[in-house]
Amino acid sequence: MLVIEGGRSLRGSVRVSGSKNATLGAMAAALLVKEDCVLENVPDIGDVWRMADVLRSVGALIEMPQPGVLRLNAANISGTAPPKELVANLRGSFLILGALLARCGQAACAPPGGDVIGQRPIDVHLKGFQALGAEVRHEGDEFVAETKGLRGARVFMDYPSVLGTQNLMLAACIASGRTTVVNAATEPEVTSLVDMLNLMGARILGAGTHTLTIEGVQRLHPVTYSIIPDRLEAGTYAIAAAITQGEVEIQCLNLEHLFSLIAKLREAGVEVDEGSDSIQVRGKADLRAISLQALPYPGLATDLQAPMAVLLTQARGVSYVHERVFDNRLLYVAELRKMGAEVVTTGTTTAIISGPTTLTGARVRALDVRAGAALVLAGLAARGRTEIEDVYHLDRGYELLTEKLRGLGAEVRRV
After folding, report:
1. Half-sphere exposure of 365 (CA within 13 A, CB side)
2. pTM for the predicted model, two decimal places
3. Whole-angstrom Cα distance, residue 338 to residue 374?
4. What whole-number distance in Å separates Cα of residue 306 and Cα of residue 205?
5. What are the residues whose beta carbons fall under 8 Å from the beta carbon of 263, sequence distance 6 or more?
6. Spatial distance between the Cα atoms of 28 and 398, rounded to a whole number of angstroms
7. Tens digit of each residue's pLDDT (9 = 90 or more) over 137-158
8. Measured CA distances, 135 to 109, 248, 334, 347 (Å)
């Protein structure tokens, strides 16, 4: 577990690691070529190594020759169906379906796991593959996709799914003809994968918009690609500075990716100064209650909804938090109440927060990656000791969390 002695203002500077979600997409893209692909700025976190195990199970060779650098080689694909136990705990593992379908003409994968934060239907993936000419069926506990050759098509996505958009790009970039994806996701992690694939020789237009045009090419070539900064980690440290009334410089980030968060922090009374690739965050004693909605990009990221809710327990008045992406992402509220937060929920997607509330240390449990981060923030602001169980969730998404927090003056340790 993680043990936090709260009540200390965070001060100093912290460097943002590479994006977890962008790394998973880039690793799947490496399956499309037979030569070495090298990824730089890779975070040393649990989900990256889980994805590495999934790729190894189908024959890829993966090594980290130095910190932050991952070398992947998929010259000899030995299988197209990773074991169920490897994909059960990682949502991003489903990305290998699109890559292997394009590369080998067939692929199979059990329904992917991940955090229990609500329905994340994979119909958008499967319907997309079918539109490209693949036969998709359910066999036992696996989805099986086969094709004699993918063909470009016009695809409408019922929902702008990040993973769904990435999966269709992986499949379509070496299909024959033109593919148009309508209602595509616009998240930075999608744009990052577009950039990498284009460097590999793909022809994809429209990154950052809801319509992607993909001109299929015969083959791709290997590439060295640097992973974008993790906007969710950056946001977590920004909120940590605010909730502890501290002053923290968060370095090596992309300001555009954090626009919605910075806007809501300022609305709540937090002082944020922008640099070229950094922000300086100063927390204030008198925060204002606000309303916020977690939305697809460029809206406030759903992954920062729980951390922002914790900050709003310290704001004066009544705040409203609406989750518009996943239907079960308020499970952390029960844990937050153990620490004295005054939060009520209406249904499964809206939380009403009354503040300011004095948070008190307690033993709580991290239910997923971002819920765990929210409890860390609560522990930093609370009086006394907070003990967070199931800390492995945090290890999945945050590189050197304990060390970075200590560097900012927090009293935190693993037990």
Report:
1. 4
2. 0.96
3. 13
4. 34
5. none
6. 20
7. 988 888 999 999 999 999 999 9
8. 14, 52, 44, 39
